[in-house]
Structures are given as C-alpha cells and as structure tokens.
C-alpha cells in the first residue's frame, strides 16, 4: 500500500475531479507490482433519499468499451491455438456478411474501414437485436473507408468479433469471456448486466445540479462492444493482467503483440493509437496500454505501463464530464511521492562463447555494443545512443531472432572467417574493427585503407 501522505494527495486529486466535474460518484485505483496499492472513492451511487450510499471497491460500474479488450484476448487465444489466423478474412469464420473481406487483424485494430455504429437506432440507449438480427441488417453502406487506409473506431467491428468468438467456441461470447478470462484471473464478480451492488447511471444537467437516470439494457449482438460491469477490485486485476501478469490466460509474447501500435489517431504528432484490441497513449516518458469505456450513464478507463508494472483506473456513473487528465495525474502523484526502486543488480552467468562476443562492434564506422542477456539473449545498441537498437533471442539452429526495433523478426548470425569473426544481420555486416578488410564487407574495402 502507498504511504499515508501519498494516499492523501491521490484522494485530493480524485475529490477535485468529482467536485469540479460534477460526477455523481467516482472511484479510482492504482496497481503496482501485480496488486492494488491504493483505492479512492467520492460521491454517491444513487439518488439522494433512495440509495445515497458511497461506492466501494465492489460497487459495479458499466465498463463500456473496456469489454472490447477482453473480447480481443479471446480472439488472440484462438489465434495462439491455431483456430484462426489474424490475416484470415472474416468470411472464413462468419460467412455471408457484406464485409467478409476484412481481416481479423483489421477488425481488432479498427483499420477495416467499418462504420463506427451499427445500422438502426442508437444502440447504446436501445435494446439490441441478437447477433443474427445484427448481421441481417448489414448492407454495403457499413463500409466507409478503404480497408487498411486509416484508423476508424468501429463498435460494429467488435460486434462481429463477438460473433466470431461465439461460433468458434460454441458458446456465447460472454460465457467464453467468463470461463477463459474472468474466472482464471479471479474476476468472478464481473457481470454481463447490472447486479447488486451497482451504481445507477446518470446524465448530469449541463446548467443545473440535477440528474437524469440513463437506461440500461441488453445490447444483444452489440454487447461485445460494451456490455460488462465490474467493480474497481476486479478492474484492478485486469490492469495487473495488462501490465504483464498474464495469469496463464495469455502468453506474454501475445500480450506484448497486442500492445504494439497498429494504427494511430489523426493529429500532427500521435499521442493516441491502437494495437490489437488495446488503446495506446503516450504520457511523457510512458507508453500506456489499456482502454477507455463510455456508455450512457457511465465512464471508465484503465491504463497500464508494462515498463514498470503500474496500472491506474477510474469508473464513474455519469454520461460525460470526467477529464482524461485524471489518470495521468494519479500516475504522476504516485511517481513523485513513491518512485519505484530499480531492481538490484546481480551478476548473471554468461556462456563463454557469448562472453567472447561482448563488447564493441562496428557497422561501417558506427560503433555498437553487444551485450549478453539472460538465457543466451543478445542486445545490440549504438554506443552513441543514436541508431538502431534491438534485442535478440537464441534459436535452435544457433542463430538469434530480433525481438524489437528495426531488426524485429530479422536473423542475426555469428560467422567465422579466415581473419576472425563477424556478425551478419539482414545483409549488414558488423566487424570488430571499422570496415575490417578480412570480413566480407558488401562492396569491398578500399585496398589502400584509411588515409
């Protein structure tokens, strides 16, 4: 748990938001090291005189589009099991739609060009048709942009992904979420509809301090886009999951893949983007992954920073008003008051052949450092700090595969030649001396040497 002084600063920021933004009730939590370290709450969950209780960690709020990230995890589980490929067209698994040529990856990343909302009445405020009815209402007009052209958020796309999951699992999407994600992660209190204890959803009058109850209903075929309800305790567990504690539900590499930017939102310099079912945001030196949520009567957001295992969330029972800066401020307060301690340095054994490779290497005249990593991994980075850096993991054939950066997916080979040793990396040659004439430098080395 955080220090008392930190808790006071965090609660003050939360109280300011609830008061200034006129939010009926507002809860927030911070996660660090795989577990919750702070919870705060302000306001009342119902109308005064009827249910004027304050919220707790167990009070359920509607998650809205945070539901999408859970559906996306199901899709990625199907991919990891070999049931589908992200490059598969939708028609291969949900045949008969007018957008069957869109790929699963495009639907996950909102790059398929689909309309934002499904046909018919405003789905967030009216009961929805079952999936069969939703699919039957689709026509060619739901395609608004060339697939792959741009990021265009689509609730409809996640209605389609929910139906894909249901067909592949043979059960409804919500049951699949419960059995494969919620129960294994200890999030059994998450529900598909409002169940006690829960906060009532309200709209706050823009010019007066009065409330209007918002409707709650079953969204039918659109439910995968925003149906689930949860308390802060369960959403904190979800934050820990997104920050890297997979709990056996998803491979760490797959979760990292979901956090990779697939698209960015419009703007002169991107500070928001989207991966595979996860929203992305930049905040100073942080690259955050998570999701926002909005339904009539409710707002919610969860952000995580896998780099230091921290997560933050809020939930509110208001249609609009909570400022997006709130969670960034809570993260900043935690970092200012209780900065994380770096892990202790400890010596780690290195195989002798890798120790021989450690040290400076040269790509032409540019100096790089090669450092062994645990498990026979390698790190190659420019000594000046300017250039291409990547980490590599060992392969069974004696090569190394790039994990990130420019060389992600590329093969690194250590090769011996009559004059010594060199590194071959995607046609580039790294040598122990700048332009070593004994190595097979592409284009050769001037025979008169340096002068």
From TrEMBL:
One GO molecular-function entry: hydrolase activity
Domain DUF7586: from-to ranges: 350-432
Protein's UniProt keywords contain Hydrolase: yes
Assigned keywords, A-Z: Hydrolase
A matching Pfam family: DUF7586
Superkingdom: Bacteria
InterPro entries: AmpC-like, Beta-lactam-related, Beta-lactam/transpept-like, DUF7586
Record-linked SUPFAM superfamilies: beta-lactamase/transpeptidase-like
Limits of the Beta-lactamase-related domain: 18-323
PANTHER family the UniProt entry points to: D-ALANYL-D-ALANINE CARBOXYPEPTIDASE (PTHR46825:SF7), D-ALANYL-D-ALANINE-CARBOXYPEPTIDASE/ENDOPEPTIDASE AMPH (PTHR46825)
Protein name, per record: Serine hydrolase
Annotated organism of origin: Acrocarpospora phusangensis
